[in-house]
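Example 3.2
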Amino acid sequence: MNWLLVVAGALVGAPLRYLTDRAVQVRHDSVFPWGTFVVNTAACLVLGALAGAALAGAASSQLGLLLGTGLCGALSTYSTFSYETLRLAERGRRFLAAANVAASVLAGLGAVVLGSQVARQLLV
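Structure, written as tokens:
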């Protein structure tokens, strides 16, 4: 039964990633991968909130499978982030490649901390 929860989350997360990426990227006339940046940061925020809810005793392991493994696993994309960073570097946009790495790591960590703190404050 657990694998069905993961599949159900992924069925929502994968198209959500694609649609969000395209919606964000089309609004930016830039080579910077804003779409991937947004979906990865959003997945970190959701996963942080889920972790905070779990720490507060308000999230079951089934919810973790559905939202954490399924939704966030399909919503976020480390492989695309890596590929887009490499592509920027290969095209001579080394500053943007380095900025993508730094901003993605910082935004991801910040989002997971923020999500966790907000969930714990709301659920305690």
